[in-house]
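Here is the promised in-class demo. Please do not try to memorize the tokens; focus on the logic of going from shape to residues.
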């Protein structure tokens, strides 16, 4: 059966314009809620870690695994999760992901020791890898009108970009007001609404039902992504010269190269290479990867600075990020609904990267005696505006125009790019920041509290400069790779979901 025939069967009356679902905006609300749950869990536990560590009594060396276990499972299984959504139905994948995520979140909240907590976090990553691509592909198939799709993706992209900051806020509030366990229990409450909405509103489409699962490709990409993320995670705790770092990075690179080779020969490829051959889509994947890497420079090191240097509480730290969230959401709406449809991504996405780079460069002016209102707030707003012009348009372009049977795996690739970018950014920036602090202390009185404080400032500003560098690279790649002009609506794109 040809692809064109498959699309036509998936779309009744393909020759005619498919009527828009009257429930589409409610579907957006449900999808956004579920996506918020997944994105929150990348950061919400971070602020609660000191409390969890004191309660459960695990070591500093084990602490990172509470965060890394989630990232490893999530990143390595995303493409499989996306393909499952295409093969067995997006509603089935979405609801299974929501229920599973809630159940293992409750398990983590009830953890009586380190092993139980880390196991629950890894299982969160497994169900998140099923839920996230299903959620994004549901948007892609629900909204086919160009203007409405832009509006929907501005909301989704804003959540994907700002969810980390919201996680910091919510994690701080729950830890301060209740207990660290509520940073996990809160997912159960969110999941109840997401499941109820999904059950009522969604229809189960199996646009790739005639395909089969690419088992060799699944194994290659899962182990390859695991090795890559694990290698970068080890760079934080060991060093770049450790076999646990470079060994896994090389193995990950070789396995992903083997995966790319296999996709050209597989009868039912896990990631059809036609998804990557469109210039706008390829550039968008790279933009999501780079924005994920650079964004961690904002969240991670600014969190340290606000709490350790300015003395902010966890809750106040979360509130301090809200202006950036607001700026990102406003820019997301303008970028996807006004700018990209008029002047195209070749101008908008590089402009966003340039603005974000300027914000990060401006943020390097912080010092031991700086104030939030003058040295942090304006810079956060500028960075938020920049990221708002990058992430939502890139996510929309990365998934728009794909065949219905590829919607899940295209969505999974976007999520994988963001997750791998975040892992790379965290490892690189942590290593560079630590080296900068060590270099600053060389030849100075390391026992002096003033010198120590300045060394930490040096580490933060180094991370901010590198984040700015990532964004500059993103701007250059965007200018070179994105096609000129306004993206055209593809008549063979994924069809609207009929209710």
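The designed amino acids, position by position:
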């Amino acid at each position: 059966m040809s692809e064109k025939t498959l699309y036509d069967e998936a779309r009744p009356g393909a020759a005619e314009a498919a009527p828009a679902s009257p429930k589409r905006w409610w579907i957006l609300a449900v999808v956004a809620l579920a996506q918020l749950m997944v994105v929150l869990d990348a950061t919400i536990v971070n602020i609660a870690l000191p409390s969890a560590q004191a309660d459960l009594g695990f070591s500093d060396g084990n602490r990172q695994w509470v965060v890394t276990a989630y990232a490893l499972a999530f990143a390595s299984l995303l493409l499989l999760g996306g393909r499952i959504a295409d093969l067995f139905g997006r509603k089935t994948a979405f609801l299974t992901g929501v229920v599973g995520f809630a159940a293992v979140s409750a398990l983590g909240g009830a953890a009586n020791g380190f092993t139980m907590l880390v196991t629950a976090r890894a299982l969160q990553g497994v169900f998140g890898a099923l839920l996230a691509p299903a959620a994004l592909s549901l948007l892609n198939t629900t909204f086919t009108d160009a203007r409405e799709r832009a509006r929907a993706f501005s909301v989704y992209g804003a959540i994907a970009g700002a969810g980390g900051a919201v996680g910091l806020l919510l994690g701080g509030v729950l830890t301060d007001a209740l207990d660290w366990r509520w940073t996990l229990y809160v997912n159960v409450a969110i999941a109840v609404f997401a499941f109820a909405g999904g059950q009522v509103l969604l229809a189960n489409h199996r646009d790739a039902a005639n395909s089969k699962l690419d088992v060799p490709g699944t194994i290659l990409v899962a182990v390859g992504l695991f090795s890559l993320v694990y290698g970068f995670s080890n760079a934080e705790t060991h060093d770049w010269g450790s076999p646990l770092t470079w060994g896994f990075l090389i193995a990950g690179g070789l396995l992903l190269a083997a995966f790319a080779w296999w996709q050209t020969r597989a009868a039912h490829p896990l990631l059809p290479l036609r998804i990557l051959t469109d210039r706008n889509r390829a550039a968008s994947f790279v933009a999501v990867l780079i924005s994920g890497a650079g964004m961690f420079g904002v969240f991670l090191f600014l969190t340290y600075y606000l709490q350790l240097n300015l003395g902010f509480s966890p809750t106040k730290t979360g509130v301090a990020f809200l202006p950036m969230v607001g700026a990102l959401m406003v820019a997301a709406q303008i970028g996807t609904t006004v700018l990209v449809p008029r002047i195209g991504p070749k101008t908008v996405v590089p402009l966003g990267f340039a603005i974000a780079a300027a914000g990060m460069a401006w943020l390097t002016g912080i010092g031991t005696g700086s104030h939030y209102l003058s040295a942090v707030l304006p810079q956060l707003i500028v960075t938020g505006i920049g990221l708002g012009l990058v992430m939502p348009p890139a996510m929309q372009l990365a998934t728009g125009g794909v065949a219905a049977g590829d919607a899940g795996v295209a969505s999974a690739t976007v999520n994988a790019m963001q997750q791998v970018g975040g892992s790379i950014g965290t490892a690189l920036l942590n290593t560079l920041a630590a080296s900068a602090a060590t270099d600053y202390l060389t030849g100075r009185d390391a026992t002096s509290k003033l010198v120590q404080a300045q060394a930490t400032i040096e580490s933060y500003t180094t991370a901010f400069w590198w984040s700015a560098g990532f964004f500059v690279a993103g701007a250059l790649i965007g200018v070179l790779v994105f096609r000129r002009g306004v993206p055209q609506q593809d008549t063979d794109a994924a069809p609207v979901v009929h209710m």
